[in-house]
Amino acid sequence: MTAPVPAAAFESRAFLQAHIKHTLAFYERSAYDPDGGFFHYLLDDGSVYERGHRHLVSATRYVFNWSLAHRHGGLARHRDWAAHGLAHLQQAFLLPPGHPNAGLYAWTVRDGRVEDDRALAYGQAFVLLALSQACRIGLATQQQVAAAFARMEDAFYLPAQRAYADERGAGGILSDYRGQNANMHQCEACLAAYEATGEARYLERAASLIERFAFELADPTSGLICEHYDLDWQPDWQYNAGRRDDIFKPWGYQTGHQTEWAKLMLQAHALRPQRRWLDRAAELQLAAWRHGWDQQHGGLIYGFGPDGSPWDSDKYFWVQAETLASAWRLWRATEEPQFRQQYLDGWAWSWRHLVDHQHGAWFRIVAADGAKLENTKSPAGKTDYHTLGACWDILAAGGLSD
Known about the structure:
Blueprint: H1 13-30, E1 53-55, H2 56-73, H3 76-93, E2 108-110, E3 113-116, E4 119-120, H4 121-136, H5 142-156, E5 157-158, E6 163-164, E7 167-168, E8 178-179, H6 181-197, H7 200-216, E9 228-229, E10 253-254, H8 255-271, H9 275-292, E11 303-304, E12 310-312, E13 315-316, H10 317-334, H11 337-353, E14 365-366, H12 385-397
Antiparallel strand pairs: 1-2, 2-3, 4-7, 5-6, 8-9, 10-11, 11-12, 13-14
Helix pairs in contact: 1-12, 2-3, 2-4, 2-12, 4-5, 4-6, 6-7, 6-8, 7-8, 8-9, 8-10, 9-10, 10-11, 10-12
């Protein structure tokens, strides 16, 4: 049953802190695996429905979660769990010398053995993010952060294009696919690396990726950021056309990726003020809301086509969460009431339909009208990194009541 909450609570520091605690409690009850790392497949009530399979994205995001939980809450067990997750990441996922992708991290592991030894830039970006956050609580060194960045440079960076390629197959050969998603998360990881180490090169790379994807490669008519590209970095609208089952490379314009880029630009703006980044973030936010907000049911849809028509009207947890963070940062930076209203409207819809008030955490996906679609609260890749991260980012942006 949905717990009633006054709108003013969404702007309260105490509310956000309580919600973070409630979300973490869901994972604290059953996710810890004493044999290594954490379980990646949890049902609505927190019970584990798959014990042996591990995914690089979840493994790294758990390190992110527990590291920030310790930074913000100071509990020793959260630091211990970040260390536990980091140890398993290195032990289970790191590809050994002699492998074509040696030094990079495998995509999936089953029963302690590498299952999918492709190296995806998306996953490697999250390794850098995890190490950067671990560095901030003394669990990783600046040298380890630098090594993770260097591995991405060597394996994926294309200097002439000022962007990262996407995938090295099991044989170590780069695929022809190019995409924005891995680059967006590398931008996020570089911002975190800068904050962890103070080394300007990480902020420079984040700024370069912002310029490349939010400005140069954006659609010249709509201003939106495309998902998929060919070798020449021209939009590829045939890639995954008609498919809805690839959560890392979905077709169409992604509502949440427009606002996630907006959030990253605003984070970068806070570190190195650039009026054009602030203005561009506002443009992306308003476009995402215009195309993505469901006027009938509320909430932000998953994706829409190049003509602006809805493509996937389901409501994903991460889309709402990222948009909460970008809306709040825009409200703080511009004082424009429309962004504050977006923040309040997004929270109200999510609180009614996506937050599990009984067991904790957020449901992964619901139908357009908010109806339940599945009982798998946290499958591979989720860990509530987006929802927890949004709350921590809102706290970092400030301006909240007590």
